[in-house]
Amino acid sequence: MISTLVLLFLGSILAFWISAVCGGGASLILIPILTGLLAASFVPFSLTIGTAVSSVSRIIVFRKSIHWKIFYWFVPFSIPAVLLGAWLLKFLNPLYLQLLISFFLIANLPQILKPKTAPDETGTPDPNYILACLGFFSGFISGVTGAIGLVFNRFYLKYGLNKEEIIATRAANELFLHLFKLVVYICLGFYSELALYLGLSIAFASIISSYTIKFILPHISDFVFKKIGYGSMIVAGIFLLSSSFVQIIDKDNIHISKNWVVGETETTINWRESSLVLEFELDDGLEIERPIQPIELPDHLKLKYDSLIQKYDKILIEKVFRFREPVSYEFYCYKGANLAKFEFSE
After folding, report:
1. Of 3, 148, 4, 27, nearest in space to 82 by CA
2. Which of 9, 65, 83, 232 is deepest in the core (most CB within 10 A)?
3. What is the DSSP letter of 23?
4. What are phi and psi of 324, to 5 degrees?
5. Measured distance CA(190)–CA(179) in Å, rounded
6. CA pair distance 109, 256, nearest whole angstrom
């Protein structure tokens, strides 16, 4: 336990240094680490403790650089979104949102490849309603995953803020979110003793990082700052994609198998308790088949099922979807060791 806390502490200092240099992202860097130590629903609680303390320390260090217009439009719209995101934790697996976020982060690859002479997209402030939308989506994602991090870094850069203003304004925006989230997570029961210890370790590391980074930041140009920011988004996206994908496959029992049925090769994708069958034929193209129960059949096919079940021992039914074709149904009828296949249109 102690060795785990020490490793997390050292990793958190490094993550918050990177976060400060690129304007954010420590949470997204730490998510893959925490998901290996905690249940996915407890990760947001640990992250929120650490990032809340980080926001406080950054506000103290960079308080003169806060951009208050963004703050006034961001916070009021983010609070209800946090409630929505935290409430959805009861029904959604946060790993799927993390997977989507990873694609968004990796999509910033063209930004890091831009040469220094390319036109700069910064310096064009967004309308107020964009700031409100930014606040809402930041709050929602933060409520589900516990992190805002680098996801919206591009919006801050496009607004034309310098590196100190990005750090200070983000910290002010996110502090209220983090404090509010802590209350929500505790009320909903998304916390544990281990999650608390890990969160405190991250918090202590964030304080050290905030007070040491102010000596590093003046030596980094705005151009390098932006490149590091986009580069961190891509790296975090790759790690998030890898960790989320592996955990989704494991926890949702996703696997692919091939079967030989009535002279045809079928590829079956299993997910949780469900399965989809993919079948490709040169004449018919790609087919997607979903096993269904007799009660899901249209009325005229229920009658057909009732007549066939009297002649066969067992009937398995699949609903078939083809591109630009009407839905059809396949009946796999078993009689002892013999199998007969019938296909009916909807």
Report:
1. 148
2. 232
3. T
4. 60, 30
5. 15
6. 31
Residues 6 or more apart whose Cβ sits within 8 Å of residue 242: 32
Same domain, 142 and 196: yes
Instruction: Answer yes or no: do 191 and 63 share one domain.
Output: yes
- Residue whose C-alpha is closest to residue 107's, from 238, 221, 198, 239: 238
Domain range for residue 129?
2-251
Rounded to a whole number of angstroms, the distance between the first and last alpha carbons of the chain is: 59
- Residue 22 in contact with residue 153, Cβ under 8 Å? yes
- Supply 129's token pair: 């309603």
Q: Of 219, 251, 283, which closes a domain?
A: 251
**pTM above threshold 0.70:** no
Closest to 25 measured CA to CA, from 238, 281, 333, 204? 238
Q: What is the pLDDT of residues 230-269, one digit of tens each?
A: 777 777 778 777 777 777 666 655 555 555 554 455 555 5
239, with CB counted inside 10 A (0-12, 13-18, 19+), is middle
Kindly state whether residues 76 and 147 are assigned to the same domain: yes
Region for residue 253 given its phi and psi (left: phi exceeds 0; alpha: psi -120 to 50; beta: otherwise): left
Domain count, the chain: 2
Q: Based on the domain organization, do 235 and 272 belong to the same domain?
A: no
- Whether 225 and 308 share a structural domain: no
Q: 132 and 6 in one domain?
A: yes
The mean predicted confidence, pLDDT, of the chain is 75
The fraction of the chain above a pLDDT of 90, given in percent, is: 2
* Same domain, residue pair 244 and 259: no
Contact residues for 114 (Cβ-Cβ < 8 A; gap 6+): none
Three-state DSSP state, 276: strand
**Residue 29 to residue 11: CA distance in whole angstroms:** 9
Domain boundary among 225, 251, 277: 251
